[in-house]
Amino acid sequence: MIRTFSQHISGSQRLLAVAAGTLLAAALLTACNSSEVPETASPQAFQVHQIYNPDANAAAEIHQALVEAAQQHKHVLLDFGGNWCGDCQILDYYFHQQPNAALIGEGYILVDVDVGQMDHNMNIAAQYGMPLTHGVPALAVLDGQGKVLYDQADGQFSAMGRVDPALVTEFLERWKG
Fold it and tell me: Do residues 62 and 15 share a domain?
């Protein structure tokens, strides 16, 4: 027999769930109306889009990025994530806003590495010290020879909804090639 969610919880649990949902909706409305939303933001800017290509050969893309980074005296920025991940969408949005877009263009070769449902390219994540136990997005910075300069093993960017956008800029400034 198929039962709905409401059939599995008691009346008090249902009331608590409704209250939590109401608080969440109020928080989202407040955040959406906040002056902290960038003035350059448009409705399209926050739409979910395909960042990570599940059919890409991540190892080959990283190899090519390393070649380019060595030639251009840049670093490689590995962004491990999934298209289903809201925090990954937020980080990608921040990456494409100024001054971050310019910093990435000047100092990095960006490689978006798809992790599927945490079951794809996990060997590549492990190769660069990224256990992904704290979730995604997870970032690593490599020099042009593939040496890991930074690995986000403890999940600093895995909760992008609570991260100040200025911290993304600070991170990019610190590790650029």
Answer: no
